[in-house]
Amino acid sequence: MQEHLKTNILNFKWPNSAPIIYLSIEDMEGSHPIHKSKFSRQIKEVFSDADLSNTDQIFTTFTTEIPDAPSIKLNLVDGRELRIYKQFLKHQLRSYFKSKDYIVVKNFVGDVQVWMPSKKGNTADYNLYYKFSFKIQFAKLADLPELIVSYDGTSKVLTKSVKDIEDSELIKRCVYGQKTFNYQMDLDTEEKQEFYNAIQFEQAYPIFNLPLARALDIPIEEPVRPANKYQKYVALINNFATNYLFTEDFKAIFPFKTDAFIEVPLNRINHIDPQVGLLEFGKDQYGNKKTHLVPKLAMNNLNPYKRPNNQNIKFFFVYHTSHKEAIKTFYNNLKNGVTSDKKYFKGIEAYVNIKASTSKEHFIEFTNENNPIPEIVEKLESLTFDHDNVRYAAFYLSPFDKYTPNPEDRDIYIQIKELFLNEGIVTQVVDYEKMVVNIENQYNFQFSLQNMALAIHAKLGGAPWKLAVTDKKELVIGVGAFTNQGENRRYIASAFSFQNNGLFRKFEYFDQSETDLLAGSICKAIRDFTSVAEADKVVIHFYKEMSYEELKPIIRGMHTLGLKIPLYILNINKTEAEDIIAYDLNWNKKLMPVSGTYIRISENQFLLFNNARYPNSQRYADTDGYPFPIKIKVSSPDEDAFEDADVVLELLTQVYQFSRLYWKSLRQQNVPITIKYPEMVAQIAPRFNNGVPDDAKDALWFL
């Protein structure tokens, strides 16, 4: 079936006459700053009597006349003045929605975001708002200006004001009038102090956050995720556009070419051959190589590519006294399979092709579920492990799930993971309550056990599958990050160096500020790889756009090593709830484009769709998911890096391939493991008391 791709972009017309804006050296009421990076020749000419060389900004009231002030007619061909025109349009957007009494804020990338009150989903405790963002760009996908309309999810605003809340330290962001503010902001400027002093607490309403909701006894519901995110997203932006944008007063600001989201130009669409994502599994008894595109289907019939190196594997359990009996049922299902026909899970030995038994002498039972560590440490010190001959894995039955109110209870599994990792033992956490529910629903339970078996196999050093197509000698390094919201601090994990077959090598992790250490670890990975093999290129997958300061020591390190191989940087972003997407109207109303579809959305910037929908596939299960595309920006410090027209396709293909190597779940991921795995490490490792042992830095214990 021929695809029919549309995107969340509205084209609007260039103005018949460019706007005239009024300028001032001095700030005044109602004016807006123009940064020095936008000082065009025309601006410098109208301020010829002033020295702007040491001026960081001037001011404008846009089209509101200032008596006796200079003015310019914006030249929309001049890049600097085009940026001022964009600033003017954003001002008009904000003013328009504020005039309609809606909440108007900046989203995390500084675009205009509007909060629309919901007619459904409100409770006595909070009111629900749908959030939509606008990004303005010029002639990126077509020849006209473009308004990107994005759905950014929802926010719940409490009906109880700041004045009526006792524990103020639990208050984070609040709605105040038509804007939001951070109640815990640093009062480090006179402007912030003035704003804080003027707040009427009875008119400020906190935005829902979990600790505050728990303190106020607001019912916390587990989020209901739609089976198909595309359907919800597209329906919401279409309804929003129809009701609020395709109106005469809004179109007076943005005169749309048509009242419809635009189609993706055919010359911007291309496809990666699905066969490059072919995966290699274990050989059959006759030595024949076995391959497949879909791990979920392959693992039912094929063996993993590589077993863990140790032939002797033993499992033991760490559990609360009250869970003792449940272990027998759980282990019986893990060992022997689920449901009478055992169609999808015949037991862990059959599923991941290993021999394993229980090590009952190592079972650890504890009585204090809120503070089990002292008991576990005491019992662990009395145990002896045969690490020379046996590889151990501990199953921790956690009494707490990720929604448990007390963060100390939620973090117990981190402490247990570190405790056993220091003993050379990998762990698998099992949510006890979820396990009990699953045991009662045997059909669903088998799929949980599949994922658990897959992760255990990889943690023990096995490789469930690898890339079958490996004709390049490339070193791939991934850099991912995780922001700890409680600390408001970002951690980075890096130097996941992969061979071109996708097999993992090693990692390190750092604080965000440690850019020199990050660069050093990347250079070490390059040196280690090139000392044993000649690389065609070095590719770094980075979780954000890499700054020159971050890139400079890497370039210097490659020069020191005498390496003249090309270096490519791929900035890889998820687009889960922001920015640009595309959707296919020709796929039974399911909307998700075919896997491997990529769209050039600007110079060296692409949308790539990673999913399990392959061409000519007749059926698609909702359980396979509907992941949104990822956004990739390709760059290089080397001048001739893109002389070969095929290099971009090769780099995108590599991302596509590495998204198929996730061993924590059988579900296809949209983000490559080069970003996903470091993010998982950055989430866990900084919470360890003594860091990750060196001998665990080449293992996948974090899955």
TrEMBL record:
UniProt cross-references to InterPro entries, sorted A to Z: Piwi, RNaseH-like_sf, RNaseH_sf
One MF annotation (Gene Ontology) recorded for this entry: nucleic acid binding
Family to which the UniProt record says this protein belongs: Belongs to the argonaute family. Long pAgo subfamily.
PROSITE patterns, alphabetized: PIWI
Domain Piwi positions: 392-690
Source domain of life: Bacteria
UniProt-recorded name of the protein: Protein argonaute
SUPFAM superfamilies named among the record's database cross-references: Ribonuclease H-like
Upper classification of the organism: Bacteria, Pseudomonadati, Bacteroidota, Flavobacteriia, Flavobacteriales
Gene3D superfamilies: 3.40.50.2300, Ribonuclease H-like superfamily/Ribonuclease H
SMART domains associated with the record: Piwi (SM00950)
